[in-house]
Amino acid sequence: LARSPRTGRQQPRVLHRPKWDSELAAEQAIALAAACGLILALWQQIVVRMVLATRGGRWAASECGFLVARQNGKGGALEAIALWSLFIAGGQTLWTAHELKTTDEAYLRVVALIKANDELAAMVEVWNGGLTGQHIIELKSDPALGPASGARLAFIARSKSSGRGFSPTRIILDEAQELSIFTLRALLYATAARKGRQLIYSGTVPDPAINQCDVWTAVRDRGRKAESGRLAWAEWTPKDSDDPQAVIDPESWENRAWANPALGTLIEAETIDSEWEAAQADIDGFLRERISVWPSLDDKGTGVLDVSAWMLGKGPLESLVSAALVVEVSQDRRHSLLLMVGRNESGAVQVEVVAPERGAALRSAPGTDWVADRVAEVVSEHSDVIESVVIDSKGWAAKLAPSIEKAISDHSVPLRQVTAEEFVAACGEVDQM
Q1: Share of the chain above pLDDT 90, in %
Q2: Which of 169, 189, 288, 416 could form a disulfide with 91 if both were Cys (CB 3.0 to 4.6 A apart)?
């Protein structure tokens, strides 16, 4: 029989797996989950097989990531992996999420699964509900349990010190769309000495105006390119949803089915219809949250800005009539950049990179110590043009606000900290220049 257009597609549109020679661990995990009453859908089994596949006795993928829209049941796949890690593989496993409530809910779901199987429940020594956002399940120290003796499964809400005090072999990074580089760094150091370490990223399409999504975006980009021999990647997304030039029809049930493997089971078609009706003032949000539309910035220069056109320029620079002086700092704070953004004499939006010092050939400079003084110089030199100094309030330059404000205090130019939404809107306006 033909598949109904209102049932979710189980096979991911994008699936890249490193070479593997065994799925025995995945078979064990699927069977163990079933013994606890968790029957995995085909798409969830695909995730488990991708994560737990081995080659030559080692993990085929040391990093795994999968992208699927909300409420499709990604937790089920993670729960099967966590149960296998605890009761069969042994050692320490760490399940992390951005929000406290997510770790609380994950802990309670796993506890319920274990308690549904008397044999497994009898192996548990510690059920530690702990504080909100941090929980531990620990098995008895018993040689009869084999590798599982003394095994631990910990659930923690992420922070910049996440992972301190833990030495896990496997880390589950739930809500990966909200994972900062600083948090990942702490977690990586926590597992540096562990043989056979594995990172599992699971998340949805981020909103760049809200989420700290640099890590998740980088995983997505590497996964889509399929150039790594150690990263496995799967995504349930509509055809062409990674192309920023494509127009994705949000009312197409084919597109909805590609993005929602649980359509027709966990998610009813009527639910998506209701979401669509309620989203008429936020179509972009519906495309992101329900259809998983997430364009790439590819080698051809497609993306929010046409990079090819940007690099070539769209005509000679003219004198600016009015402008803002924008301060940018790289994520690692190793480099800073000043930009003049405003209207030129022809009325077009124009962007100029300001040299870090007079006559300098470089367009950015190391560190941040020089920024405040240079901002004051530029404001003084262009007092008839610069109307404000601008910093993204959620960006890496935000910490420079006090020193910049002090440096320009003798001038009539204000320091403005824009919201993330204003920052994204401004980038879009620049693209129209």
Answers
A1: 61
A2: 169
When computed from its CA atoms, the radius of gyration of the chain, rounded to whole angstroms, is 25
CA distance 329 to 21: 45
The pLDDT value given to residue 396:
77
State yes or no: pLDDT of 124 exceeds 70: yes
Cα of 420 vs its chain's centroid, Å: 17
Residue 8 has pLDDT above 80, yes or no: yes
Q: Are the beta carbons of 51 and 41 closer than 8 angstroms?
A: no
Q: What is the pLDDT at residue 183?
A: 82
pLDDT digits (tens, 9 = 90+) for 376-416: 999 999 989 999 999 988 777 888 999 999 999 988 899 99
What would the two tokens of residue 3 be? 């598949």
Distance of CA 428 to the CA centre of its chain: 22
Q: What type of residue sits at position 274? A: S
The Cα-based distances of 49 to 197, 258, 369, 370 in angstroms read 17, 20, 50, 51
Beta carbons of 150 and 164 less than 8 angstroms apart: no
Residue type, 367: G
From residue 328, how far is each of 62, 165, 233, 276, 398 by CA, in Å? 34, 35, 32, 37, 9
Place of tokens 């989950």: 33
As a whole number of angstroms, the distance between CA 91 and CA 170 comes to: 9
- Cα–Cα distance, 342 to 413 (Å, whole number): 15
pTM here is 0.70
Q: What angle, rounded to 10 degrees, do the helices at 181-190 and 214-225 form?
A: 70
User: Which of these, 8, 4, 71, 83, lies nearest to 43 by C-alpha position?
Assistant: 8
Q: Which amino acid is at 90?
A: G
Q: DSSP characters for 324-360? A: EEEEEE-TTSSEEEEEEEEEETTS-EEEEEEPSSTT-
Supply 68's token pair.
């699927």
